[in-house]
Amino acid sequence: MTKQPDALDALAAAPAAELRETLLEICSSPSWAAAVAGTRPWSDRDALLAANAAAMTALTVRDLEDAMAGHARIGKPKTGDATSEREQSGIKGVDPMLLDELHEANAAYEAKFGHVFLICATGRTAETMLASLRERYRNDAATEAEIVRGELRKINDIRINRLLDES
């Protein structure tokens, strides 16, 4: 009897173009996707997650911009995008005044840093995201870029694990 390939094996064996598209769904930075793809085959899940970590560390400012471009504003999940809606489920049913505060804080953050506020929203409430946004607004650009890098890594880890678990 032949062993059926698991999700990790199937991902590692995917044609280059298919793998690239799958990885770009996890993180919209082409540099990240190329770096992760270049480490295949992965011996196990931890090796793929380590590839994510290494690729995130190597991203330039421009690459981080590419990665952030794939994310919806906190408080405004992309309509019809199951991933965005799932990740931001903590804003469902919140008081509209709280959402207004979140939108105002987002606008101030974007004006200061030139990009969306990025946080691993999975499991967070609207209140905790707003508090983090306000706290991080005080950061300088270099500090904030490193926090964003860490948040992207967490998001990618969650998306990678979900991909492997659902396949």
What does it look like?
It comes from Kitasatospora camelliae. The chain has 167 residues and is mainly α. It has a single domain (7-166), classed as UraD-like, CATH 1.10.3330. Helix content is 66%, strand content 0%. Helix 2 packs across helix 3, helix 4 (45-58) packs antiparallel against helix 9 (141-166) and helix 7 (96-113) packs parallel to helix 8. The model has no long low-confidence stretch (mean pLDDT 91).
Topology:
Elements: H1 7-13, H2 16-26, H3 30-37, H4 45-58, H5 61-69, H6 82-87, H7 96-113, H8 126-137, H9 141-166
Helix pairs in contact: 2-3, 3-4, 4-9, 5-9, 7-8
Give a quick summary of the entry.
Keywords: Decarboxylase, Lyase, Purine metabolism. Residues 13-161 form the Oxo-4-hydroxy-4-carboxy-5-ureidoimidazoline decarboxylase domain. The chain has helices at 7-13, 16-26, 30-37, 45-58, 61-69, 82-87, 96-113, 126-137, 141-166.
Give the key terms.
mainly alpha; globular; UraD-like; 2-oxo-4-hydroxy-4-carboxy-5-ureidoimidazoline decarboxylase; 167 residues
The separation of the N and C termini measures 21 Å
| Mean of residue pLDDT values | 91
Radius of gyration in whole Å, from Cα? 17 Å
Shape: globular
